């Protein structure tokens, strides 16, 4: 059995997979969590390998998947401060499981590793270089998904796209440029707030705004909450709004205005990354609901006409990958169905190969 | 449109440490000539080199070395010179960087508009109060003359809501006026006017990406059919490109992190991001891109100096790509202001590998250009024209005034 643990403070989400069957759940991370989990999956002794999602590996964890050895746990300890709540959960879970399951294989699945070696001019902010030495840089996110998608496309087309742009349409939408399999750019910055607007975070804004807010007496905590929890779709629509509503929702008033801002956000990053790559041969969209999203993708692709890109309806394939490339298109367009556990288990299998 | 008497317009243009003036004789909107011009240098700067004013009028030139404490004092010196030389002035035009939501176009400075101007001061805390000082001085000196103001932000009033909106709660954006305003509007309106004429195209079917690259601030603007649709600077001039000492785009959460984890005070951080970042912060060597380019091409001390150069180029290319996408393709890429027209090496790096956008630089034309007059430097078969245009902010200010007065 493969067990995957995904921190979701103060919970751990888990999935147990065996012979193609998946069971999943969520448990509060307290003193008895491992015992309860054992009961839920019919006995811990069945577990052969455990994968742990690490959301922020800083510059310490360089592999998207690596053995959670004592040595790597040492490095993991040093990146807890980058994302304290989540990373601490991952670290504790690794330690406890290693003790409880000494014969199982333990794997770290690091979401930022894909971006560790971004070119320096891409990862560095134009602030005094001293701050870069202290860890202020662009870290990126969702590397596991983007890199997985790239590998899938390679397997599917039997060749490696030279210059690809990967667009993840999900919680914290983000865009990544991939050159020959290596990350070349990402819209995510030091945190996931930078880049494209999300359900509750503001995306790119002028930092002077923060000084103005602070100077009127707003506390750091309140500004933090404002930018990361009360902005984005929620602020523009005036109420909590799911991404699915933005992608496939109605055609009236605020829904249209919100979709336009969201699309324009993505479009600007795609243009920027085409320039960063020097051209593009493949664009891939990653999302959960292929049927619901394909009208959105076709609409969005119309704005990429200047690249010679034309998207048609799904021409071939079903299930995980769909080819949307129109026969007259100069750029390949793919859609990949995103399933978190599927992506993570594929990464675990990668090591077993 | 022709007037019996030509109109003499005195134009003031404030830089952060300089004050440029020009007097234009306007016979009609298409017949405008410079009568006199000059510049006060090192205004309000303390240092080893002293401040001075230069004047050029009627074939004569004059340079006066004198301490100049403020822009208002500089304006007084210039106005006294004009009085001494008995140069006729019919009206005075001022440049105001940031008019916020209060001004969508140039206005005559009557009492209600002067009151509204005061509301704009905090929007550009460095530039706007400087301009206000010059306005006060000119009104004192020429109490009877018509004065008007032209706003950089006005050219960007056509940016659509989906491009200017920050995704913050409306109660916040409305209260503080948070949105993208954009800057360097005078320069871009000159681009929007001159480039289609130069390329013998109609403004109404020309899509332009314009790069205003100055010694201090720099930005990029997307111009669709004569109107701004996006600009890399935002609510303030801090965002966008890597500038001489400003950081340009950064993660907004970084500010909170630096204040809470590293204990920076807000004013200290503001100073850091505005005055100690950008090229200076990265290179640790110079805030001047020209110095940096020299160093890189001499292949001396490559490390952080070349990182600074690569970051400058990378960010600029990203914005060009973004705006090509925003425009859905482009007809002309324009470089303007001092750095834009005078650094062929910079342009060579920026335009390399942009064939995807239909852009091909003629490297010989590019390196041979003086940058003193409008010229195109693309290959003949390039779908996109690459144009160098020396900026003429004072001319635009004059033109705006002429339009107000000759109506």
Structural write-up:
- The complex is a heterodimer of chains A (353) and B (407).
- Chain A has helices at 33-40, 70-78, 84-100, 120-123, 129-133, 143-157, 208-215, 220-229, 232-237, 243-248, 253-277, 290-302, 340-352, and strands at 2-8, 11-18, 21-28, 49-54, 65-67, 105-110, 163-169, 174-179, 182-186, 282-287, 311-316, 321-325, 332-337.
- Chain A is an alpha/beta fold.
- Chain A has a 7-stranded mixed beta sheet with strand order 9-8-7-10-13-12-11, with helices on both faces. A 6-stranded mixed beta sheet of chain A has the order 3-2-1-4-6-5, with helices on both faces.
- In chain A, β11 (311-316) and β12 (321-325) form a beta hairpin.
- Chain A is globular and about 55 Å long.
- The mean pLDDT of chain A is 94.
- Chain B folds into 2 domains: 7-158, Nucleotidyltransferase, domain 5; 201-389, ATPase, nucleotide binding domain (Nucleotidyltransferase, domain 5), CATH 3.30.420.40.
- Helix content of chain B is 39%, strand content 21%.
- The termini of chain B are close together.
- At the A-B interface, α4, α7, α8, α9 and α11 of A face α4, α5, α7, α8 and α9 of B.
Quick take:
The complex is a heterodimer of chains A (353) and B (407). By secondary structure, chain A is an alpha/beta fold. Helices cover 39% and strands 22% of the residues of chain A.
CATH architecture of the largest domain in chain A: 2-Layer Sandwich
The percent range for strand residues of chain B is 15-25%
Please tell me what the overall shape of chain B is. Answer: globular
CATH class of the largest domain in chain B: Alpha Beta
Strand arrangement, largest sheet of chain A? 9-8-7-10-13-12-11
| Count of domains of chain A | 2
By CATH, the architecture of the largest domain in chain B is named 2-Layer Sandwich
- Shape type of chain A: globular
H/E element order of chain A: EEEHEEHHEHHHEEEHHHHHEHEEEH
- Major beta-sheet overview of chain A: 7 strands, mixed
Could you tell me the mean pLDDT of chain A?
94
CATH superfamily of the largest domain in chain A: ATPase, nucleotide binding domain
Low-confidence stretches of chain A: none
Count of β-strands of chain B = 14
CATH class of the largest domain in chain A: Alpha Beta
Q: Please tally the helical runs of chain B, counting DSSP H or I stretches of 4 or more residues.
A: 15
* Separation, N- and C-terminal Cα atoms of chain B: 8 Å
CATH third-level topology of the largest domain in chain B:
Nucleotidyltransferase, domain 5
Radius of gyration of chain B: 21 Å
């Amino acid at each position: 059995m493969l067990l995957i643990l995904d921190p979701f403070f103060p919970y751990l989400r888990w999935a147990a997979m065996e012979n193609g069957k998946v069971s999943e759940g969520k448990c509060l991370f307290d003193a008895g969590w491992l015992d309860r989990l054992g009961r839920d999956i019919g006995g811990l002794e069945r577990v052969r390998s455990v994968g742990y999602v690490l959301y922020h590996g800083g510059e310490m964890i360089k592999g998207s998947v690596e053995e959670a050895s004592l040595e790597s746990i040492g490095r993991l300890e040093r990146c807890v401060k980058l994302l304290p709540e989540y990373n601490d959960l991952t670290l504790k879970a690794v330690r406890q499981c290693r003790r409880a399951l000494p014969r199982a294989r333990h794997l770290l699945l690091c979401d930022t590793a894909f971006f560790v070696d971004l070119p320096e001019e891409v990862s560095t902010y134009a602030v005094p270089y001293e701050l870069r030495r202290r860890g202020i840089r662009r870290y990126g996110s969702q590397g596991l998904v983007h890199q997985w998608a790239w590998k899938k496309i390679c397997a599917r087309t039997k060749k490696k796209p030279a210059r690809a742009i990967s667009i993840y349409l999900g919680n914290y939408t983000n865009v990544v440029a991939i050159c020959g399999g290596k990350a070349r750019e990402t819209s995510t910055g030091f945190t996931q707030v930078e880049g494209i607007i999300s359900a509750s975070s503001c995306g790119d804004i002028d930092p002077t705004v923060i000084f103005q807010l602070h100077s009127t007496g707003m506390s750091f905590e309140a500004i933090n909450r404002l930018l990361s929890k009360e902005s984005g779709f929620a602020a523009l629509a005036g109420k909590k709004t799911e991404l699915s509503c933005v992608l496939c929702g109605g055609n009236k008033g605020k829904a249209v205005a919100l979709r336009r801002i969201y699309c324009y956000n993505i479009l600007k990053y795609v243009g920027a990354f085409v320039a960063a790559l020097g051209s593009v041969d493949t664009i891939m969209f990653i999302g959960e609901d292929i049927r619901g999203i394909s009208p959105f993708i076709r609409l969005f692709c119309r704005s990429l006409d200047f690249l010679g890109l034309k998207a048609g309806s799904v021409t071939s394939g079903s299930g995980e990958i769909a080819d949307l490339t129109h026969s007259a298109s100069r750029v390949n367009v793919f859609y990949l169905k995103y399933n978190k556990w599927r992506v993570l288990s594929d990464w675990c299998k990668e090591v077993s190969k | 449109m022709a007037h019996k008497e030509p109109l003499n317009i005195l134009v003031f243009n404030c830089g952060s440490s300089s004050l440029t003036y020009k007097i234009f004789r306007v016979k009609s909107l298409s017949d405008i000539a410079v009568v006199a011009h000059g510049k006060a240098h090192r205004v309000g700067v303390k240092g080893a080199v002293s401040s001075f004013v230069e004047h050029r009028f009627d074939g004569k030139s004059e340079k006066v070395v004198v301490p100049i404490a403020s822009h208002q004092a500089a304006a007084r010196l210039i106005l006294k010179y004009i009085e001494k030389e008995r140069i006729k002035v019919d009206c005075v035009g001022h440049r105001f960087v940031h008019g916020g939501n209060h001004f969508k176009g140039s206005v005559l400075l009557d009492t209600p508009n002067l009151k509204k101007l005061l509301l704009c001061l905090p929007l550009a805390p460095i530039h706007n109060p400087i301009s206000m000082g010059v306005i006060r001085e000119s009104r004192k000196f020429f109490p009877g003359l018509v004065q008007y103001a032209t706003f950089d932000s006005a050219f960007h009033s056509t940016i659509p809501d989906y491009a200017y909106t920050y995704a913050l709660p409306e109660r916040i954006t409305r209260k503080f006026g948070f949105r993208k305003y954009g800057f360097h509007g005078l320069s871009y309106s000159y681009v929007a006017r001159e480039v289609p004429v130069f390329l013998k195209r109609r403004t109404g079917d020309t899509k332009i990406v314009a790069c205003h690259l100055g010694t201090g601030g720099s930005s990029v603007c997307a111009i669709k059919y004569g109107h701004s649709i996006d600009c890399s600077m935002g609510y303030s001039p801090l965002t966008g490109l890597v500038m001489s000492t400003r950081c340009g785009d950064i993660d907004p959460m970084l500010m909170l992190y630096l204040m809470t984890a590293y204990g920076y005070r807000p004013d200290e951080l503001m100073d850091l991001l505005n005055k100690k970042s950008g090229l200076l912060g990265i290179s640790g060597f110079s805030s001047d891109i020209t110095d940096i380019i020299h160093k890189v091409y001499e292949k001396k001390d490559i490390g952080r100096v070349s990182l600074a150069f690569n970051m400058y180029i990378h960010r600029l290319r990203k914005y060009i790509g973004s705006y090509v996408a925003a425009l859905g393709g482009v007809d002309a890429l324009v470089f303007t202001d001092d750095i834009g027209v005078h650094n062929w090496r910079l342009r060579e790096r920026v335009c390399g590998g942009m064939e995807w956008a239909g852009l091909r630089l003629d490297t010989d034309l590019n390196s041979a250009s003086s940058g003193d007059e409008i010229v195109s430097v693309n290959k003949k078969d390039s779908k996109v024209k690459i144009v160098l245009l020396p900026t003429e902010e004072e001319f635009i200010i004059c033109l705006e005034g002429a339009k107000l007065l000759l109506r």
